């Protein structure tokens, strides 16, 4: 894999104030290239020092400008993700998405076969940042050929058309028949399932041009989360203490969303305690014995993917979306919350879900 370090160098040199120290941040799948990139940048800019940040990186929300300030770093280069978090500090932040290609003809053939065999006419395509350009090429080619099916992509917040996150996927229009995920892993694909629980899902491999049906019990997973919301409601009615866990891994926690939650809690006189955590793990929650249950403002998927682990440790954890629903039920703002269509993964859906998003409009 090659990185365009020349364009990074150009950005660094164009900064109004000289850049002498740069932090490099990679997700797990790219961290093996860290030394290669650091060496190239230091060769291209005499006197430059690169610092490799090796803490875990789950997504673009983990950009770590705060540690940059502690280390006296002038700029941070974040690899592998799209820019979704605005860094308000004076530190220059550069996002470098990694682009991957597939086989256009094989992918179009697979989509055509899928539509014909399954009787689908309207397909919603979803992918990660790496394949966005590839799907844009597919869209242009399909427009030229006019096949007997249509493809859809829904831009969300700062994400590009077709791009989703593990914590963010839109609800697709009612005329969409199925979702096709052009993603290797399951994390992003599951977000599409959870936000569109009644639609069939397929995984398409763009290099091989093959597809397969995906089996994921989104309805069952959502039903368990709705039960957790009802359980939290009972705790609130009993006047129990709520622990608000603010995630400090990079920019994972949203201050504006924290303020929305605090306003709700104070308005309805709900007892609460704010807890700051770099990583939300059971061993860090154990000491807080006075807390009846926790609501976390880190990654919404924690409470979906690690629910069994927290339960086995005797801990009860909601994400912020679920906590807001529990508070609204407690306050009588919401009469019920028992339809799977009501559940959302909208962490970065700017402007469409108001107080339930990272940007909290």
TrEMBL record:
Binds 1 [4Fe-4S] cluster per subunit. The cluster is coordinated with 3 cysteines and an exchangeable S-adenosyl-L-methionine. One of its GO terms (biological process) is protein histidyl modification to diphthamide. Pfam families: Diphthamide_syn. InterPro entries: DPH1/DPH2, DPH1/DPH2_1, DPH1/DPH2_2, DPH1/DPH2_3, DPH1/DPH2_euk_archaea. GO terms for molecular function: 2-(3-amino-3-carboxypropyl)histidine synthase activity; 4 iron, 4 sulfur cluster binding; metal ion binding. Its cofactor is [4Fe-4S] cluster. Transmembrane segments: none annotated. It catalyses: L-histidyl-[translation elongation factor 2] + S-adenosyl-L-methionine = 2-[(3S)-amino-3-carboxypropyl]-L-histidyl-[translation elongation factor 2] + S-methyl-5'-thioadenosine + H(+). It comes from the Eukaryota. Catalyzes the first step of diphthamide biosynthesis, a post-translational modification of histidine which occurs in elongation factor 2. It comes from Giardia muris. Belongs to the DPH1/DPH2 family. DPH1 subfamily. Pathway: Protein modification; peptidyl-diphthamide biosynthesis. Keywords: 4Fe-4S, Iron, Iron-sulfur, Metal-binding, S-adenosyl-L-methionine, Transferase. This is 2-(3-amino-3-carboxypropyl)histidine synthase subunit 1. Its EC number is 2.5.1.108. It is an enzyme of class 2 (transferase).
């Amino acid at each position: 894999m090659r990185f365009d370090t020349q364009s990074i160098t150009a950005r660094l040199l164009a900064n109004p104030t000289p850049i002498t120290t740069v932090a490099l941040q990679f997700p797990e799948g790219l961290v093996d290239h860290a030394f290669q990139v650091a060496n190239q940048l230091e060769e291209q800019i005499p006197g430059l020092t690169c610092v490799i940040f090796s803490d875990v990186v789950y997504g673009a929300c983990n950009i770590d400008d705060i540690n940059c300030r502690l280390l006296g770093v002038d700029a941070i280069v974040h690899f592998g993700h799209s820019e979704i978090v605005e860094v308000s500090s004076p530190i220059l932040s550069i996002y470098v998405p990694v682009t991957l290609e597939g086989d256009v003809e094989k992918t179009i053939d697979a989509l055509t076969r899928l539509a014909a065999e399954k009787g689908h006419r309207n397909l919603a395509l979803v992918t990660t940042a790496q394949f966005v350009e590839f799907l844009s090429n597919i869209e242009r080619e399909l427009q030229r050929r006019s096949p007997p099916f249509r493809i859809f992509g829904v831009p969300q917040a700062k994400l590009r058309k077709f791009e989703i996150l593990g914590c963010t996927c839109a609800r697709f229009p009612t005329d969409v028949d199925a979702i096709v995920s052009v993603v290797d892993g399951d994390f992003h694909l599951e977000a599409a399932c959870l936000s569109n629980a009644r639609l069939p899902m397929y995984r398409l491999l763009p290099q091989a041009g093959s597809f397969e049906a995906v089996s994921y019990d989104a309805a069952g997973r959502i039903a368990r989360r709705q039960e957790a919301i009802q359980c939290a409601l009972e705790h609130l009615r009993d006047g129990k203490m709520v622990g608000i866990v603010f995630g400090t891994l990079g920019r994972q926690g949203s201050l504006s969303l924290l303020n929305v939650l605090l306003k709700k809690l104070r308005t309805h006189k709900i007892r609460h305690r704010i807890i700051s955590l770099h990583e939300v793990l059971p061993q860090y929650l154990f000491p807080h014995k006075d807390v009846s249950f926790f609501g976390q403002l880190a990654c919404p998927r924690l409470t979906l993917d690690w629910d069994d682990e927290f339960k086995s440790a005797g801990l009860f954890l909601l994400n912020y979306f679920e906590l807001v629903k529990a508070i609204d039920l407690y306050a009588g703002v919401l009469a019920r919350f028992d339809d799977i269509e009501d559940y959302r993964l909208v962490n970065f859906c700017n402007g469409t879900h108001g107080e339930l998003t990272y940007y909290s409009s």
